[in-house]
Amino acid sequence: MGYGGALRTGTRKTIEAGYDYALFMDSDLTNDPADIARFVAHMDRGCDVIKASRYTVGGGMPGVPWKRRVISQTGNAVARLLFGMGLRDCTNGFRAVRTSILARMNLQENGFPIIVEELYQCKFLAHSFCEIPVLLTNRSEDRRPTSFTYKPETLRKYLSFAVKAFLGVKPKLKEESLQ
């Protein structure tokens, strides 16, 4: 079930274990695990959704190819406007979300668009959002290249969730789908 299936499995296990938050981080170490402490500080303050941001003071993407940076920056500028949640980095997968919020979600995507699908549902479930600055690095050359590509279908899915959020189209959440 791909990236989305892995996130749904991790979410389910986090809920079953009774944790307050689920923290998601790609396993290729393009984000620094030392940044987890910054998430904890915001968890202690009670923030519902904590996103790592490449686009705040102190954030960035050293070593990431310019084409990927331009596509990411453009896509995030559009998403920022459409989501209207005050987040500068809507597509970064390094994030923490309260498990009580995740438990209400009805996530369907199997690929990377699940990150934006999750944010779309968070818009209607969460009360507070915050960001921490992070440096996203490029994978080292001894690792296989990323499997993420900017295919038209992927971009369409990213945009569809942002447009639905902008239009106020409420997602079908788990509790709502049972009625």
TL;DR?
With 179 residues, the chain is an alpha+beta fold. It has helices at 2-17, 36-44, 66-83, 99-102, 114-125, 152-167, 174-177, and strands at residues 21-24, 49-53, 95-98, 129-133.
Could you characterize the architecture of this molecule?
By secondary structure, the chain is an alpha+beta fold. It has a single domain (2-168), classed as Spore Coat Polysaccharide Biosynthesis Protein SpsA, Chain A (Alpha-Beta Complex), CATH 3.90.550.10. The chain is 44% helix and 10% strand. It has seven helices and four strands; from the N terminus they run αβαβαβααβαα. It has a four-stranded mixed β-sheet with strand order 1-3-2-4, sandwiched between helices. α3 (66-83) packs parallel to α6 (152-167). The longest helix has 18 residues, at 66-83. The protein starts with a helix and ends with a helix. The model has no long low-confidence stretch (mean pLDDT 90).
